[in-house]
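As the next step, I selected for study a record pairing a protein sequence with its backbone structure tokens, which the following lines show:
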Amino acid sequence: MQLFLRSETVGGALLIAAALIGILLANSPLSEVLRAVATTQIGSDALHLNLTVQEWAADGLLAIFFFVIGCELKHELVVGTLSKPRQAALPVAAALGGMIVPALFYVAINQGGAADALSGWGIPMATDIAFALAVLAVLGRGLPTGVRTFLLTLAVVDDLGAILVIALFYSASLHVEWLVIAAVLLALFAIAQRQRITSPLIYVPLALGTWYAVHSAGIHPTIAGVALGLLMRVKKDPGEQDAPVDRATERFHPISAAIAVPLFALFAAAVDLRSIDLGAVTGSPILLGVLVGLVLGKPIGILLAARLATALGAKLSAGMRWIDIALVGALGGIGFTVSLLISELAFANEASLGAAKIGVLIASVAAVALAAVVLALRRSLAR
């Protein structure tokens, strides 16, 4: 079962299914039941953890997803494609272009719009790793292995950028004392890794304490997940069957794929279209900014940045062509999980939030369609 859940195709399918169920439930007679569940508060008032179920999904469960992302990023930085500057230059440059250009498109469209519109500039910056890799696994059989590696590296750098954006621009007022506590707990976690301690009796309290300290510091607590992942030891010792980062990824990826991400997607995608003035929303600059940013800004930014990087000396991986970079650019427009998270952090106004979420959903579907067109063109050129 764990092997089954570690499949990128399965993880992406669960993500898509959960989002569809969320949309259907939100627009069905069961919408009030879903809303009641989503707004039910759980947790201690004294510890300031009286969060709703939906907030627990976004702040708590999604931290597991970001822990897995942190583990994957650490692996890439130490022994993977990001460990050698020459290999990393092209996908890193493409990722930066794929973040900057969509944000600029969004700002250009929303300049002079509603008072809160510009706060959504970070929404079209993110690429959904699970969704994009699942679509590539389904549609992209027979492609060079370098395409998947390029997409994975780009998406990991992209998510790291999104994490920094969340930490710097979408977090509440900072409480330095809790940030210091979080830093101390992270240092203890790193020391335990260096001392080759394996007991969960050490790591679980440190991880939970770090999450609580980051939450109390006013920073979105998913940052704790990626920070812990980046502290995992990558190289295995003599006699070790697997390195700690590989064991952690193997253990938590199924939880992330089967529980954390689908539950977040279920609540995040639950937009009640009946309560939204679709006529007003479809003409909303927020929706248009998200849509244009993801569907056009992503591939344009990725292609332009990759071209610039090659002009400065970077090279395509063996077997890859520019049409493959265009395919990755199209898949980069699938912003789903992190884009929905930033939408919720950016907008308190229901109308603006609804426009942003609908924009993300439409853009993700359009990005898949665009990727299918690019893939068909690639195969036609190959023939």
Summary: The first strand starts at residue 41 and ends at 42.
